[in-house]
Write a structure and sequence with these properties.
The chain has eleven helices and ten strands. By secondary structure, it is of the alpha+beta class.
């Protein structure tokens, strides 16, 4: 395949809003490509290399590796996972559903006119034209499954603190006496989402599934709150339902897999490092959140937490805790990533005993995401 310099420069042109420069620089060093202390200089240097008429095959291989890495970063970094379990269905049915989904996307308002080749992103001047739109970007076929990758352009409110100078107070009398104000502005953001149909797997407990792997980033690098995640999930659930009902009027999508039972199973295991807990004491009825300074430290073995667990269990009136939120991290051999699996419940989850999604953070590629996803599903399927 002939190297396309224009496609490569499009790929890296707008990634500064989505990828931290240290992460990108680390990958560039690994591939022996130039690194700078600013995004503009880094992109300019890579563009010069890509457009060099005397570019070597070795350098082309490195640039193609960057494209692949950016693609994986967008597909696997900061995702909410919703899983619809089709355990009572034959694998062939999920394959048929995937074919129906692809065929009917054009009927539900999903567009295919993104101006860049994936993983290229829209320029800030292009975003307004696609506000509120969802576009199919890429289809990946894997052994036992197929993934549909989308771009969604959505508007978010950004809360910012603005410092006030003496000149500002002179210009606007209302600002007199204030050193800073809090402003709220709107910003458009391109999110990369995946709908995955899986009909076979390596595990004996594998069940066919449809999965929503949704981008939870916001402008400025922050993470969506629970209500914003709920809104995003409803949008894609509607797309799935509408597509599949067009081919089968009796189609009913099952409820999302419940991840609430996973919390206690992970806490009781010796897996990973539990780095955050939200819980309530059963008799004392007090709510607490405990969080480690480092994600690689394990709260279960921390002196105060471990001591408190022993103390309440051996008190004159023994008490226990009910956990409604848990974050667990891993150090894994196949990647420099330290992925975090979050089961993001709230106090209300204790009464419903239901959490419809999990969150995976800290992944820059497929291997660390698949590892974390695999651990999630192992505990989810555990009796």
């Amino acid at each position: 395949m002939v190297f396309d310099a224009t496609e490569f420069t499009s790929c890296i042109a707008n990634i500064d809003k989505r990828i931290p420069l240290p992460d990108f620089a680390s990958k560039l060093r690994e591939l022996d490509l130039p690194v700078s202390n600013s995004w503009s200089k880094t992109v300019a240097a890579l563009t010069d290399i890509a457009e060099n008429p005397k570019i070597t095959s070795a350098v082309i291989s490195s640039l193609e590796a960057i494209k692949s890495w950016v693609s994986e970063y967008f597909r696997y970094s900061s995702k909410a996972i919703f899983i619809f379990d089709f355990s009572n269905s034959k694998p062939g049915k999920i394959q048929d559903l995937a074919a129906d989904f692809r065929k009917n996307l054009k009927h539900v308002g999903v567009r295919r006119d993104h101006p860049a080749t994936f993983p290229g992103l829209l320029d800030k001047h292009e975003l307004p034209s696609f506000n509120g739109k969802t576009m199919l970007r890429k289809v990946y076929r894997q052994a036992g499954g197929i993934s549909f990758v989308f771009s969604s352009i959505r508007e978010y409110q950004i809360r910012e603190t603005i410092a006030i100078s003496p000149a500002d107070t002179q210009a606007v009398e209302k600002l007199d006496g204030y050193s800073k104000v809090v402003g709220i502005r709107t910003a458009l953001h391109e999110q990369i989402d995946t709908i995955r149909f899986r009909w076979s797997g390596n595990s004996a407990s594998f069940s066919p599934t449809i999965e929503m792997i949704l981008d939870i980033t916001k402008p400025g690098g922050t993470i969506l709150n629970s209500n914003e995640i709920l809104i995003r999930s409803k949008e894609y659930r509607s797309i799935i339902n509408t597509c599949l009902l067009r081919s089968n009027s009796s189609f009913v999508i099952p409820s999302e897999l419940n991840f609430f039972p996973v919390i206690q199973k992970i806490y009781n295991s010796k897996e990973g490092n539990v780095c955050e807990l939200g819980f309530v004491t059963m008799l004392g009825n007090s709510m607490k959140t405990e969080k480690m300074k480092r994600n690689s430290a394990d709260l279960r073995s921390e002196t105060w937490h471990a001591g408190a667990m022993v103390a309440i269990a051996s008190a004159p009136t023994p008490d226990t805790i009910d956990i409604y939120k848990l974050n667990v991290s891993w150090r894994i051999t196949m990647s420099d990533d330290e992925p975090i699996l979050s089961i993001p419940g709230s106090y209300r989850a204790l009464s419903s005993a239901s959490i419809d999604h999990a969150i995976i953070l800290g992944c820059t590629g497929r291997s660390s995401f698949n590892f974390t996803y695999g651990r999630l599903m192992t505990f989810a399927r555990m009796p």
